[in-house]
Amino acid sequence: MSETGGTRAADTEYGIFLPIGSGGWIVSETAPHPEATYAYNRRAAVLAEEYGLDFIMSMGKWRGYDGATDHWGRTLESMTMMAGLAEATERVKVWATIHTNLFHPAIAAKMYTTLQEISGGRAGMNIVVGAYAKEFEQMGLWNGTLSHADRYRYTEEWTSVLERLWTEPSVSHDGEFFQLDDCRSLPHPERRPTLIAAGRSETGLEFQARHCDGSFLTSQDLPGLREASLDVKTRAEKQGRSIRTYSMLTVIMADTDEAAEARRLEYGRGADVDALVNMKVSWGLPLERAMSSTAERPEDEAFQTPFVTGSPETVAARIRETVEFAELDGLMLIFPDYHSDLTEFGERVMPLLRPDPAGGGAG
């Protein structure tokens, strides 16, 4: 590894993926069902700050997946919710999601400058290239003629215009997708908001390397995650930049490993197959393939990210293993019940991940 485990552990950022959509991140009838309310998310954000986590992030979602749980049928809007949470917190970074196909870069520049001021410099922009057609077709805002590469070319231009608006007194631009004439966006942010993106495609990784401060990565296994982390960092270095890498992990904890595994199995037992199939169809999978892949292991499919189960000690060890082996700079955590589970995690796991230096060493 390029750094020692101790150095990396000290620098690792931990955050939460807020349940801005009803049902949170487990698609199941037998799992807790976080409600998409500001009050619920505010409590989760305050707990994250109280227990020493570093950031809070919310997705952008415009249509749910039906099924028995009506998964994500109710959602809040990311930017406005995070502006409220910036007032409710003092230290955690507040990262909101924006779809480039819905917001003109001049509008986005002003919105995030405002969030940066509200938060005292803690704002982050999670840039998403709109990909799920149904979300935008319902608004009449889907350009079905743009390929995946076209959408990234659009987002590349969008981001370049955004960055100019944050730094130049006036922007005139005659591009493929945007035309600006003496466009002004003042005041400029005192410090550019953190730019974040996800995706493993070649064009996505190149976009992240050129523009982003953080990259969210996924993989089927730890070796793949390590390879992805090192890959995007190398790409950024070639651009004369640096980038931090993150992944996601669902935490299912109990007093013992056996009790935690039983909890996971119970949540998996209630997998909402119809919602899962609808989700995969929205990704572009044919219906028959979506149904067959979901039917193979629905109890695992209920979890939308890799998961870790176990006692506090086991969870802490698995988190350290993930971060250190994959050479990540951070993890975004998901909990079945953000209020009770995050409290347990904060009280019993965070002290193991970040032991008090005065306490004489690692837990």
TrEMBL record:
Lineage, top-rank taxon, reads Bacteria
Q: Where is the Luciferase-like domain?
A: 13-324
The family database entries (Pfam families) matched by this protein are listed as: Bac_luciferase
What is the main EC category here? oxidoreductase
Could you give a GO molecular-function term held by this entry? oxidoreductase activity
Keywords from UniProt, A to Z, are:
Flavoprotein, FMN, Monooxygenase, Oxidoreductase
Q: Identify the InterPro entries for this entry.
A: Luciferase-like_dom, Luciferase-like_sf, SsuD_RutA_monooxygenase
| EC number(s) on file | 1.-.-.-
Name by which UniProt lists this protein: LLM class flavin-dependent oxidoreductase
Its source organism is Nocardiopsis lambiniae
Q: What is the lineage of its organism?
A: Bacteria, Bacillati, Actinomycetota, Actinomycetes, Streptosporangiales
